[in-house]
């Protein structure tokens, strides 16, 4: 695999916001002819080799391999002074995460790029006067990002990005000059080269990286984030494919999270979306927008730049089964139009960021939250953001071992959020704890204070909110994502203006996992089927054990269990994956072997769809499984209560689980270890509809089976590897002491097996990219 040094070192924090020399010289306003047709006939200078020269075929003649993309990018870099390439990281399998910067010769040196970034930060700085910001914007080149292939089997964005690099590097016509001379274009052709080579949507660790932007677990996304900090973006375009004949591009559908700033939404809906619509109508290509896709959770490739960097972000979708030439052409033309639109409005685009950051500080000082809005005529506003003031968040260094708190502080500081540590205790008359009611309290010395009055106010609210207040009754993907709730971190908010004695927090390194697994506990992960959910669950759990916990593990398939591999295992964990398919693959011999192993002292741990339903189906758990009677179908955080015992270690009585319309457990007497509390203490964050029988039902069932133990979680204990609170409970289940457990009666086991439903595998593949 190729390893290449980075173009310039990543910055550990944003540079001081001081006035800097213009990034574009005095002649910059003369940016070519305004009347130049964006699709004027290309004229090539001939200094850059064509794809045919290097690869033996044109782009679009076939689907490029990862090596072909690397080879051609290197060839362009070697031939053109307008291109610099670098690496923003390395994948799990050792492949380079390559990017290319394109601009005029002499303006893509290390110093020129650093000066341009500093100029943009000065424009964005709310303390810069409007006149000074505008004067600097007139002579500053924006950073426009074009990215493809975050899903490995959605290839055409990468092919189009390579073609874009060739055209920008070599063309001499007015259309290419206008883009190249007025902007710095940053191209990320392959965001998931491992997945591309493997033919997987996910990366080699089983992660859908388009849902990793908030917590950045994977090297591909963590590296991209640092690249965005290095080159503060004014536009981020993320190219995808899907199974619809018509293409999709913004404007986006409801719901839109309320903290999306108005300047960003205006650029997406009023400038960039209409420009793409004009292109498609001229080409007579079919498309849709504002119907079915949303701009909601700040986890995607388009939403994280919008919420964290105030840069318009767009997801583009092209029909995956179309010929590669057509898919590539549509993406290329969309890239070209979006770049041209941004260039033509570059001063307004830069000033919109200045406005967005000013708006953020102003709202933070007043404690104002953005209100909920609906953007489509047929949308009905389900709920408004409450009329409350939020001027401060506090995170308390109490409870647990502190790993989750330090990890959250690291994520916040890595997003340039201002955090202070209290030098002395602070009396707060209106403190509202997470999952509690407003009351007066004293915040202790050493607690962390995050004021809302800062440029990153929108990101602060998105990351630390107690509830997302989803504006409509439908959405796609998770609706609850509060970092403190994900980590069971005590804290809360206040609306009062306070001036505490506090010290700014500097950089926070990502902490190492603080617990050591006891010696002699051999753990295996059961990848039960050949389906995507089994693959995803097993690989994500293996990543958690390898890269975070530092625990050796092995992945077993049904043939391994049939062959006796469990004889050397103490704990077998079965994540998501269809249990009916698992039983078919195990067959009578495999089921008999699994039950024999548990009876003889093995410990089976299961969660979400897979192990949760397998255990009662084969008569190994008394937990009865019923279909979810709730309307929580897109990931809400819900409070659970843990009984006294080893699973509570480092967690306490309350924890938060990601409930994604999961199965509901009904437990036998004495078997419940955790439950969803009754109405008096039930609490949630996100869209919770028709909660039905959830309050009072079991969340975790832990019981003896023979001389062994079976522990099943109703929800996913390792949801996308960012539910740090339930990860700690999972750790306790695997490595903690075994509590005194009741044995399920034969009658209870038979009843659970009879009640087990048969439709568990009828789970649709996610629709949205």
Report what the structure shows.
Helices cover 33% and strands 18% of the residues. It is of the alpha/beta class. It folds into 3 domains: 53-361, Aminopeptidase (3-Layer(aba) Sandwich), CATH 3.40.630; 392-504, no CATH class; 523-626 and 698-755, Rossmann fold (3-Layer(aba) Sandwich). The strands form 6 sheets. Strands 18, 19, 20, 21, 23, 24, 26, 27, 28 and 29 form a 10-stranded mixed β-sheet that branches. A 7-stranded antiparallel β-sheet has the order 14-13-16-11-15-12-17. The longest helix has 22 residues, at 262-283. The radius of gyration is 27 Å and the shape is globular.
Domain count: the total is 3
- Average pLDDT for all residues: 91
Q: What percent of residues adopt helix (DSSP H or I)?
A: 25-40%
By CATH, the architecture of the largest domain is named 3-Layer(aba) Sandwich
Provide the gyration radius in Å: 27 Å
Tertiary shape: globular
Brief digest:
This protein is of the alpha/beta class. The protein is built from 21 helices and 29 strands.
Write the layout of secondary structure elements.
Layout: H1 51-55, H2 66-79, E1 83-90, E2 96-102, H3 110-124, H4 130-138, E3 143-148, H5 156-170, H6 174-182, E4 184-188, H7 193-198, H8 219-230, E5 233-242, E6 247-248, E7 253-256, H9 262-283, E8 287-288, E9 294-295, H10 303-309, E10 313-319, H11 324-344, H12 346-366, E11 392-395, H13 403-413, E12 420-422, E13 426-433, E14 439-443, E15 448-451, H14 457-464, H15 483-486, E16 491-494, E17 502-504, E18 523-526, H16 532-549, E19 553-556, H17 558-562, E20 571-574, H18 579-599, E21 603-607, H19 611-617, E22 624-626, E23 636-642, E24 654-659, E25 664-666, E26 672-675, E27 684-685, E28 698-705, E29 708-713, H20 724-735, H21 746-755
Parallel strand pairs: 3-4, 3-5, 5-10, 6-8, 7-9, 18-19, 18-20, 20-21, 21-29
Antiparallel strand pairs: 1-2, 2-4, 11-15, 11-16, 12-15, 12-17, 13-14, 13-16, 22-25, 23-24, 23-26, 23-27, 26-28, 28-29
């Amino acid at each position: 695999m190729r390893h290449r040094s980075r173009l310039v070192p990543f910055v550990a924090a944003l540079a001081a916001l001081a006035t800097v020399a213009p990034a574009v010289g005095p002649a910059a306003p003369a940016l070519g002819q305004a009347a130049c047709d964006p699709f004027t006939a290309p004229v090539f200078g001939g200094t850059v080799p064509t794809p045919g020269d290097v690869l033996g075929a044109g782009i679009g003649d076939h689907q490029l391999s990862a090596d072909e993309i690397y080879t051609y990018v290197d060839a362009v870099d070697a031939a053109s002074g307008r291109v610099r390439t670098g690496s923003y990281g390395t994948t799990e399998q050792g492949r380079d995460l390559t990017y290319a910067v394109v601009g005029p010769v002499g303006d893509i040196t290390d110093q020129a790029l650093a000066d341009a970034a500093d100029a943009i930060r000065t424009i964005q700085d709310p303390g810069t006067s409007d006149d000074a910001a505008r004067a600097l914007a007139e002579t500053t080149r924006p950073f426009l990002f074009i990215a493809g292939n975050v899903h490995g089997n959605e290839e055409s964005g990468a092919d189009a990005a390579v073609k874009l690099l060739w055209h920008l590097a070599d063309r001499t016509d007015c259309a290419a000059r206008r883009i190249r001379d007025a902007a710095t274009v940053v191209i990320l052709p392959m965001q998931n080269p491992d997945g591309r080579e493997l033919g997987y949507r996910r990366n080699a660790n089983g992660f859908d990286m388009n849902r990793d932007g908030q917590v950045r677990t994977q090297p591909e996304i963590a590296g991209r984030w640092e690249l965005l900090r290095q080159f503060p973006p004014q536009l981020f375009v993320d190219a995808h494919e899907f199974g619809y004949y018509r293409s999709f591009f913004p404007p986006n559908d409801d719901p839109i999270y309320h903290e999306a700033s108005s300047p960003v939404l205006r650029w997406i809906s009023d400038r960039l979306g209409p420009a793409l619509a004009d292109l498609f109508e001229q080409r007579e290509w079919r498309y849709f927008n504002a119907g079915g896709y949303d701009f909601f959770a700040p986890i995607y490739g388009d939403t994280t730049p919008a919420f964290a960097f105030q840069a318009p972000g767009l997801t583009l979708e092209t029909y995956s089964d179309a010929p590669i030439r057509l898919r590539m052409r549509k993406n290329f033309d969309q890239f070209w139009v979006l770049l041209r639109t941004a260039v033509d409005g570059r001063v307004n685009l830069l000033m919109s960021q200045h406005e967005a950051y000013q708006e953020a500080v102003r709202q933070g000082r007043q404690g104002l939250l953005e209100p909920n809005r609906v953007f489509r005529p047929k949308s009905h506003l389900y709920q408004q953001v409450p009329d409350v003031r939020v001027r401060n968040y506090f995170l308390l260094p109490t409870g647990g071992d502190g790993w989750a708190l330090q990890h959250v502080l690291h994520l916040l500081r890595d997003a340039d959020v201002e955090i202070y540590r209290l030098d002395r205790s602070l009396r707060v008359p209106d403190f509202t704890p997470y999952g509690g009611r407003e009351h007066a309290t004293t915040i202790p010395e050493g607690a962390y204070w995050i004021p809302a009055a800062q440029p990153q106010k929108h990101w602060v609210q998105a990351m630390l909110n107690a509830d997302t207040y989803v504006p409509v009754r439908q959405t796609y993907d998770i609706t609850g994502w509060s970092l403190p709730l994900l980590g069971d971190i005590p804290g809360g908010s206040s609306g009062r203006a306070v001036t505490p004695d506090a010290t700014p927090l500097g950089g926070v390194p990502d902490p190492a996992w603080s617990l050591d697994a006891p010696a002699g506990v051999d753990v295996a992960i059961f990848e039960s089927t050949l389906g995507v959910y089994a693959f995803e669950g097993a690989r994500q759990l293996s990543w958690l054990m390898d890269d975070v916990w530092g625990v050796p593990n092995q992945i077993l398939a049904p043939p391994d269990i049939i062959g006796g591999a469990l004889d050397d295992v103490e704990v077998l964990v079965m994540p998501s994956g269809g249990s009916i398919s698992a039983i078919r693959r195990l067959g009578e011999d495999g089921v008999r072997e699994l039950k024999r192993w548990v009876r003889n002292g093995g410990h089976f741990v299961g969660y979400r769809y897979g192990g949760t339903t397998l255990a009662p189906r084969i008569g190994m758990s008394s937990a009865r499984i019923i279909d979810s009677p709730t309307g929580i179908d897109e990931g809400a955080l819900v409070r659970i209560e843990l009984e006294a015992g080893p699973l509570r270690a480092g967690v306490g009585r309350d924890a938060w689980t990601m409930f994604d319309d999961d199965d509901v457990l009904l437990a036998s007497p004495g078997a419940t270890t955790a439950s969803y509390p009754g109405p008096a203490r039930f609490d949630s964050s996100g869209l919770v509809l028709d909660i039905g029988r959830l309050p009072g039902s079991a969340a975790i069932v832990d019981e003896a089976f023979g001389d062994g133990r079976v522990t099943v979680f109703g929800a996913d204990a390792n949801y996308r590897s960012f539910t740090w609170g339930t990860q700690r409970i999972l750790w306790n289940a695997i490595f903690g002491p075994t509590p005194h457990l009741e044995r399920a009666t034969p009658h209870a086991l038979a009843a659970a097996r009879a009640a087990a439903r048969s439709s568990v595998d009828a789970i649709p593949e996610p629709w949205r990219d």
